[in-house]
Design brief:
Elements lengths: L1 E5 L10 E7 L4 E2 L8 E8 L2 E10 L4 H7 L5 E4 L4 H9 L3 E4 L4 E2 H13 L4 H11 L1
Parallel strand pairs: 2-6, 6-7
Antiparallel strand pairs: 1-5, 2-4, 3-8, 4-5
């Protein structure tokens, strides 16, 4: 079971990616995939970012969590089990694991900078898939 808080806005221009951050404190990537209380979802482009929704996780169920994240391009977390990682990858979502707590704002700024320079191949692939 989960609840989703949608944030209405003018929307991002083309060339944006949808990124989910596993968080327990609403400010940092500080949660294991399987024990995250929520995922803060951002639309990120070379022009900026905006939070688009907050997915609250009420029941620890890997299949349900993966289904809730089905529209994401990338998901960040502190750790993930091998079964959940396989499910994320098989859903077409690029997983990024950190070994330590990192600020969501810091990662959003890094992604914006990447989109403005020479993005790594996995981000180019995501953008190409969205443009097709």
């Amino acid at each position: 079971m989960a609840s989703t808080i949608k944030v209405t806005s003018n929307g991002m221009q083309g060339g944006s990616i949808k990124v989910a951050f596993a968080t327990n404190d609403n400010e940092n990537i500080d949660a294991h995939f399987g024990s995250a209380r929520q995922f803060n979802v951002y639309d990120i482009s070379s022009e900026g970012s905006q939070i688009s929704e907050i997915i609250k996780i009420e029941t620890k169920d890997t299949d349900n969590t993966v289904a809730l994240l089905k529209d994401m391009d990338i998901v960040y977390f502190i750790n993930i089990g091998p079964t959940a990682a396989a499910k994320i990858i098989n859903s077409g979502i690029f997983p990024i694991k950190y070994k330590e707590v990192v600020s969501i704002d810091t990662e959003v700024e890094k992604l914006i900078a990447m989109l403005n320079t020479n993005p790594p191949p996995f981000i180019k692939k995501i953008l190409a898939k969205k443009a097709a």
